[in-house]
């Protein structure tokens, strides 16, 4: 009886530690994939620009890309 019990305990311990090791490897792989995805997305980001508000009509546009509107008092005419 004692030897059979030890064999069962050894099998359970083996399965437990094997599953735990596999879970740790999967977690490390997932973290590596997420880190790579974040690096790629950071490289693909477009640079941001501050928007400028038109003093007359109140619309926003990027610096250097202001266009004249239909108002007579438009500063970009």
Secondary structure blueprint with pairings:
Blueprint: H1 2-43, E1 52-53, E2 60-61
Antiparallel strand pairs: 1-2
What does this structure look like?
With 77 residues, the protein is mainly alpha-helical. The chain is 55% helix and 5% strand. It has two domains: 2-45; 50-77, no CATH class. A two-stranded antiparallel ribbon has the order 1-2. A hairpin with a 6-residue loop joins strand 1 (52-53) and strand 2 (60-61). The model has no long low-confidence stretch (mean pLDDT 85).
How many structural domains does the protein architecture include?
2
Give helix and strand order, one letter per element, not per position: HEE
Share of helix among residues? 40-55%
- β-strand amount: 5-15%
pLDDT < 50 stretches: none
Envelope shape: rod-shaped
How far apart are the termini? 98 Å
Structural category: mainly alpha
Number of helices: 1
| Major β-sheet annotation | 2 strands, antiparallel
Mean of residue pLDDT? Answer: 85
> Order of strands across the widest beta sheet?
1-2
Number of strands: 2
Radius of gyration using CA atoms only: 32 Å
């Amino acid at each position: 009886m004692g030897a059979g019990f030890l064999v069962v305990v050894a099998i359970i311990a083996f399965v437990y530690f094997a599953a735990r090791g596999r879970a740790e490897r999967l977690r490390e792989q997932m973290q590596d994939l997420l880190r790579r995805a974040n690096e790629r997305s950071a490289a693909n980001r477009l640079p941001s620009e501050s928007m400028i508000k038109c003093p007359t009509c109140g619309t926003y546009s990027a610096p250097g890309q202001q266009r004249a509107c239909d108002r007579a008092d438009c500063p970009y005419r």
